[in-house]
Amino acid sequence: MRITMIGGGYVGLVSAACFAEFGVEVAVVEADPGKLAELRAGRMPIYEPGLEALVAANVASGRLSFTADLPAALAETGAVFIAVGTPSRRGDGHADLSYVFAAAEQVARALTHPAVIVTKSTVPVGTGRRIAQLLAEVRPDLACAVASNPEFLREGSAIADFMRPDRVVIGVEDEAAREVLRQIYRPLYLIETPIVFTNLETAELTKYAANAFLAMKVAFINEMADLAEKTGADVHDVARGIGLDGRIGRKFLHPGPGFGGSCFPKDTLALMRIAQDAGAPSRLIESVVAVNDARKAGMAARIIAACGGSVRGKTIAVLGLTFKPETDDMRDSPALPIVSRLIGDGARVAAYDPQGMEQARALLPEQVEYCQSALKAAEGADALVVITEWNEFRALATARLAETMRGRVIVDLRNIFDPAAMRGAGFAYHGIGRRSG
User: Is the CB of residue 233 less than 8 Å from the CB of residue 177?
Assistant: First the structure.
């Protein structure tokens, strides 16, 4: 089996490497010359644990290749996966499908034989039908089937998620196309992974519904954290108490500064717009979007209050900039509004992130000082703020922090530290949904 992946970004690259590991021959079409050169040189455009080694192994085996030559990549292909970006459209929050439709048209014009056209990108309900219409208009001589195969990859765990998924969702209504996709995913059939076949619209909506539900859990536990602080409860015990209920589950019940990243912010916004346009508005999702936006904006005020009401002239050590650990992704990270507000209010910010500092430079105020270690960032700081829960921060010795910092304020927005240990070392510890002091 030979397949073509349009787009060498996060989804396209991870999916291509994993399909190649399944034994499929994969040609990745990347139009950006700089990115293509990096990929051919074995340098990954993103940080994802294990990805560089997986790509290298499959390039060496001859199953994975990178090219800008679309016609050559489409030769003898059985399926074409479109994995291009669908960012929020500026001004209205709808998903921008211009890259998807451009890719579909280019593929249609270059194909010399029928193939299955599969959307791997996250696309609104109805996109598959529109792609089918486009194909019929551009190439009425070519009978191509359209399918939807949304991804459910967590940044930092993407390879494991692809190779051992909870489920695979495939929207397809042509029996021959269904068989092609069944063969592509045959290794997962062998380990009895649930493969859910649906129509196009169901697969497209399933992706948005899944992300929106998880985002809703995050927003819910963050609101419970605020309530716990007001009432003297501990949000971690609350999360455990409800998470042990099999109907609820433990995952995504971790309080923090709000969700960010490449999926939840844009997908909740897009689903909100999809529902409104369909005449079935989702008040829950609208609330999730509003709650999360307000939470990220309010985190800086929490830090300022912990510092006595003002950060002007104070040095704030910020640990973690990416929206989550094990990635270099800064998209919609809570660090963006937090650090910008602290700088705007006159603070000196010394920041450290294991992977995200290069990306952060283009997004954060130029006054931010980037350090080579967590302890270096903490040197002489009046307060230390944890925004991203990288494991290396959990290992910081309390005594070393006390020696290194000038002040004694810890604002732990991910609850990675032991409050009792921090208070025992003389710190004024402020967590999320926990007693401060």
Answer: no
Distance CA 20, CA 60 (A): 11
Q: Identify each DSSP E strand in 303-378 by its residue range.
A: 315-319, 348-352, 369-370
Nearest in space to 266 (alpha carbons), one of 211, 309, 317: 211
Q: What residues have CB less than 8 Å from 398, skipping those under 6 apart?
A: 417, 421, 422, 424, 425, 427
Which residues does the annotation mark as catalytic? Answer: 263
Dihedral (C-alpha) 146, 150, 156, 160: value to the nearest 10 degrees?
-80
Going 380 to 384 to 386 to 387, the CA torsion angle's sign is negative
Position 435 confidence tier, pLDDT thresholds 50, 70, 90:
confident
- Note whether 63 and 26 are within 8 A (CB): yes
With a CB cutoff of 8 Å and minimum separation 6, the contacts of 137 are: none
For 397, residues 6+ apart whose C-beta sits below 8 A from its C-beta are: none
Q: Where are the beta strands (DSSP E) in 249-303?
A: none
Q: Render pLDDT for 37-72 as a digit per residue (tens, 0 to 9).
A: 999 999 999 999 999 999 999 999 999 999 999 999
The candidate with the shortest Cα–Cα distance to 265, out of 320, 199, 218, is 218
Q: Tell me how far apart the alpha carbons of residues 422 and 429 are, in angstroms, rounded to a whole number.
A: 6
Overall size of the chain counted in residues? 437
DSSP state of 95: B
Are 123 and 148 within 8 A, CB to CB? Answer: yes
pLDDT score recorded for residue 437: 61
Instruction: Write down the pLDDT at residue 47.
Output: 93
Q: How far is CA 82 from CA 11, 199, 394, in A?
A: 10, 18, 39
Q: What is the pLDDT of residues 148-157, one digit of tens each?
A: 999 999 999 9
Q: What is the 3-state secondary structure (H, E, C) of 153-193?
A: CCCCCHHHHHHCCCCEEEECCCHHHHHHHHHHCHHHHHCCC
Instruction: Report how far residue 151's alpha carbon sits from residue 14's, in angstroms, rounded to the nearest whole number.
Output: 10
How many whole angstroms from its chain centre is CA 426? Answer: 37
What are 367-370's contacts with CB under 8 Å, separation 24+? 367/343, 368/339, 368/343
3-state class (DSSP) for residue 343? helix
Domains of the chain: 2-198 (3.40.50.720), 208-290 (1.10.1040.10), 295-430 (3.40.50.720)
